[in-house]
Amino acid sequence: MARGDWVVLAVFAAMAVAPLIGLLVRVWTQGGVITGADGFLVLDPMQYVGWLRQSGDFGAAANLYDLAPGPHSFVHPGLLISGALYRLGFGVVLAYMVWKPVAIAALFAGALFFSSRFLPRTGDRRVAIILGLFFASPIAAVVGWTSAAGSATKFDLDFVSGELWTGTYLWGYLFTAVAVGLMPLGLLAFERARSGGRGRYLVAAAAVGLVVAWFQPWQGATFALILIGASLMTDRRDRSALLTSCRLLAPVMVATALPLVYYFLLSKLDPSWRLAGEVNSFGRWPLWVTVVGLAPLAIPALFAYRARSLDFAGWMLRIWPVAGLLVFYLPVGTFPFHAFQGLALPLAILSVIAVRGQLGSKPLPLLWTIVAIGLMVVPGTLYRADQIRGAVKAGRQAFFLEPGERDAMRWLERQPGAGGILATLVDGAYVSAYTGREVWAGAGSWTPDLAWRGLALTAFFDGVGSAAEDQALVERAGARFVYASCRVTADLEAKLAPITLGPARRFGCARVWEIRPPAGGWR
Q: What region, left, alpha or beta, does residue 483 occupy, with left being phi > 0 and alpha being psi -120 to 50 degrees?
């Protein structure tokens, strides 16, 4: 790595930790406790934290957002590692955050080595790395800043740009970041195996396929399609070479397919995963959104497809964006939007290759290169930063806890025996992660009858229902505890008194009631 590469890495690492630092600064200046979620949504990383806690306790995770019995059926290697750290004494959030430096290293290494394979000039390579790691759609930024908050166009362009931008993965979705970073390294390992490298390269490619598909199945499917497509295109005129390619591909494809088959079985056999698949099964954005979202990088990249006499690596590079689009548009799986993750890197490299084809041996013009990078990176990054600032400032998600709320979580965690918790939807995002107990409603994809439960919880914690209605809801939910965070101001004491073991236990501005156990005890 040259000095400039270290500078890029330092800036990239700073971007990765910027929201976390901002949240810590807010706590230092205004008080409170950060929950540990440092992305646009609190719910998702808190679910991962809850999963890792269960992985440490049971070896597998179950759905903790329904207060109903369910199997511990979800096994994930990253969660198992974090779960082991939790069992060794790490805090649950820290046990997840240890993946942030791993994610930074994986993404940077993937961009560095994959760009170096195709761009021998230092300047060309560095431009591709910067665009691959920092590209944030300027079109989405302009539309977002000039459109109404509820605009469908704004939502769609925010969506596609968020899937392409690596900052999204680093801000809360660390397993995604690791998968996206490892994929180009696996492609290079397989190329080495094809070119007569030792068996260790084939083992490395198979290991990457296994991890990538397990961490993020959309990238696993893309990885498999790239290798299959590149092998077919390279060896299509040589039957002997094609047979050799098939023999090399076999162990890599088996390793990559195993997690994909596992996720497919989960979606069919586990009721919670089946529910999540149904909730997340909605239409793709319009074709024009795909075109506009990819256009800043895809338009120059298209000129690199005119190349002839491509080797295996050249086919890998050009098939990658096509494979991602195939995974997105094929009518299989759920939430196909994640297929766009990681596409910025191959498109950036192809764009630089196209520009190099026009320049010949001339160096990249410094001024125009700076202008191009500035347009591709700065407005979009500022827009995404402004979005997360707005999400924190809005206060509709639990980015922070009051000290009393943290103490309430610790008390609930320490109570012996089973029994779940009734909490608001906002609080349901973090309660399971911090207590290890189920909640009646939390993650939208994993909560049955979410719309009805959300309305019922709103009425309950706003204090608009009668005492009989509130007591009936608690009993119907089957909750052992009712948790009212500091944002709940309604007086629930008198309404809950007939079904509780005593007055509310107070933790600063937070309150917890323990419900009388049913005849058969708590599950």
A: beta
